[in-house]
Write a sequence for this structure.
């Protein structure tokens, strides 16, 4: 039996049918209908967020958060404003910055948590800097207090890409409470999915209307067009999938946790293998199981391990490889070298992790990794 790198969580079919039955009666298919509103309320409670706006995916939520905070207006001309971010992320983070007319400035990461290195942020700040966009990589929570004190000192906004951090708490607070906004992804492959979907959580209530307009053609309360918006609404069918998956999220995370613990039992202390643990104070969601291979000590490269796993019917993912600033389409934004991000991106592999991955599966995966092959 092949083992895939991810397998989306799905509710029992009957549960989904019950959830969409009202949609077949009222024929409200989209446009922030009752199922959308119900999911929003439930997520506000689950995430411990103050305010939440749902989107068709995490990427459009990121773009909309940037625009809703008015960051585009800060520069003198289009493309002028800069956002300091990490190159060790999914391309969506940087794409959102470029596609909203701003410039990404890549800051190196901290080797201990793979998140943006707070010690390197200030040297990148220029008069054009408008915001910092850190990523809670693999569900490791960034050093939010240092990042936010730097941002405050320099008058910068902070938007967290929390696509990996669904449901996590840090120091007892939902991760969506930090910064000016936090963006979540509900893509099929994430800890919580609504097939496709996403959200922006925020504290400043005045962002509610701009976010709503950005995802619905700039229309205010179904009547007048007040601004230039796109279309990024979460429809009722996806919202219903979200409601069903949210019902099972705690057991889903518990199953991920058990798989991670098994990985740790097998891989902790192996020479040449570096594993991460969540920062102290993080209530983790066990989103990913990244393994850094030190090729000198381990004797084999990430490519060797990837190939050996594949020969045994096991998927894994070089996530994130390459670093965003090593992509050809980012050449014009490459800026200063980010050696830690490059090294980590070249030597890290995410192992299979999903609800339903059993201890036996983890053993099979670890047997391949630990067998002295090539
Ligand atoms: C998945 C992901 C996104 C994009 O979310 P979508 O819902 O797929 O659009 C953005 N940033 C990171 C770090 C992600 O992992």
């Amino acid at each position: 039996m092949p083992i895939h790198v991810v397998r989306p969580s799905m509710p029992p079919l009957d549960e989904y049918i019950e959830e969409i039955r009202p949609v077949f009666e009222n024929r409200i298919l989209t446009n922030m209908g009752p199922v959308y509103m119900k999911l929003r309320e439930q997520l506000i409670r689950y995430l411990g967020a103050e305010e939440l706006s749902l989107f068709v995916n995490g990427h459009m939520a990121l773009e909309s958060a940037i625009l809703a905070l008015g960051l585009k207006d800060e520069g003198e001309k289009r493309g002028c404003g800069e956002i300091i971010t990490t190159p060790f992320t999914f391309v969506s983070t940087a794409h959102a910055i470029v596609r909203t007319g701003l410039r990404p400035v890549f800051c190196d990461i901290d080797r201990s948590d793979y998140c943006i290195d707070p010690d390197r942020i200030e040297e990148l700040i220029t008069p054009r800097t408008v915001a910092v966009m850190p990523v809670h990589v693999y569900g490791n929570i960034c050093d939010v207090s240092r990042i936010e004190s730097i941002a405050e000192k320099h008058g910068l906004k902070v938007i967290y890409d929390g696509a990996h951090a669904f449901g996590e708490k840090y120091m007892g607070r939902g991760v969506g409470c930090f910064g000016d906004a936090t963006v979540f992804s509900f893509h099929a492959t994430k800890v919580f999915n609504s097939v496709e979907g996403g959200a922006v959580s925020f504290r400043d209530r005045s962002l509610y209307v701009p976010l709503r307009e950005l995802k619905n053609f700039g229309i205010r309360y179904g009547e007048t067009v007040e601004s230039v918006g796109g279309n990024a609404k979460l429809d009722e069918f996806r919202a219903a999938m979200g409601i069903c998956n949210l019902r099972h999220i705690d057991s889903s995370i518990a199953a991920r946790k058990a798989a991670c613990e098994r990985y740790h039992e097998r891989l902790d202390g192996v020479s040449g293998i570096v594993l991460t643990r969540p920062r102290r104070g993080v209530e983790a969601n066990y989103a990913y199981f990244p393994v850094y291979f030190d090729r000198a000590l381990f004797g084999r490269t990430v490519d060797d391990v990837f190939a050996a796993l594949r020969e045994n019917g096991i998927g894994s993912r070089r996530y994130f490889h390459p670093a965003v600033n090593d992509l050809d389409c980012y050449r014009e934004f490459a800026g200063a070298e980010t050696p830690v991000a490059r090294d980590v991106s070249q030597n890290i592999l995410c192992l299979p992790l999903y609800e339903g991955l059993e201890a036996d599966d983890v053993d099979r995966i670890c047997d391949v990794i630990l067998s002295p092959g090539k």
